[in-house]
Write a structure and sequence with these properties.
With 132 residues, the chain is mainly beta. The protein folds into two domains: 92 residues, Sandwich (Immunoglobulin-like); 28 residues, no CATH class. 14% of the residues lie in helices and 39% in strands. The strands form three sheets. Strands 3, 4, 6, 7 and 8 form a five-stranded antiparallel beta sheet that branches. A hairpin with a 5-residue loop joins strand 6 and strand 7. The chain is elongated, with a radius of gyration of 20 Å. The relative contact order is 0.22. Interacts with COPS5; regulates the phosphorylation of JUN and the transcriptional activity of AP-1. Interacts with RYBP; may prevent the ubiquitin-mediated proteasomal degradation of FANK1. It is found in: Cytoplasm, Cytoskeleton, Cilium basal body; Cytoplasm, Cytosol; Nucleus.
C-alpha cells in the first residue's frame, strides 16, 4: 500500500531549460525482492490551460530531470506513487519557474551588458557573459 499522500517532489537544480526533481519515500518504499514488488513513481506535469495532467516520467528511479522547457516559465508537477498491487496516491503540486536564459546579478543579461563589458574592457564580466 502506498504511503498516505506522498510529499511533493523536491526541486533540485533549475536552469532556463530544465528542472531537476527528486523524491524519497524513505524506508516505506525500499526496493526488496523482484521489481514487480517495488513502488513505481510517475511525475505528472499540469497543463494549465486544460487543467489536466500529462505523465512525463514513469519508473523506479527517485530522480528525474525535466528538459526542453521554456525560460522564465512556471511549471507545476506532482508525484504519483503506485504500490505493487496497483493502488496509487498523488502528492500535492509543486510549482517551479525556470530561470532566464542568462542571468547576471539578479537580472537577465542583455546586449547592453555585453556592450558595456567590451566598452570598459571588463574581461572578467565578458568571460562570464560568454560562458552563460
Amino acid at each position: 500500500m502506498p504511503p498516505s499522500k506522498p510529499h511533493p517532489p523536491v526541486v533540485g537544480k533549475v536552469t532556463h531549460h530544465s528542472i531537476e526533481l527528486y523524491w524519497d519515500l524513505e524506508k516505506k518504499a525500499k526496493r526488496q525482492g523482484p521489481q514487480e514488488q517495488w513502488f513505481r513513481f510517475s511525475i505528472e506535469e499540469e497543463d494549465p490551460k486544460m487543467h489536466t495532467y500529462g505523465i512525463i516520467y514513469t519508473g523506479y528511479a527517485t530522480k528525474h530531470v525535466v528538459e526542453g522547457l521554456e525560460p522564465r516559465t512556471l511549471y507545476r508537477f506532482r508525484l504519483k506513487v503506485t504500490s505493487p498491487s496497483g493502488e496509487c496516491e498523488y502528492s500535492p503540486l509543486v510549482s517551479v519557474s525556470t530561470t532566464s536564459s542568462i542571468w547576471l546579478g539578479g537580472e537577465p543579461i542583455s546586449s547592453e551588458h555585453l556592450h558595456r563589458a567590451v566598452s570598459v574592457n571588463d574581461e572578467d564580466l565578458l568571460v562570464r557573459i560568454l560562458q552563460g
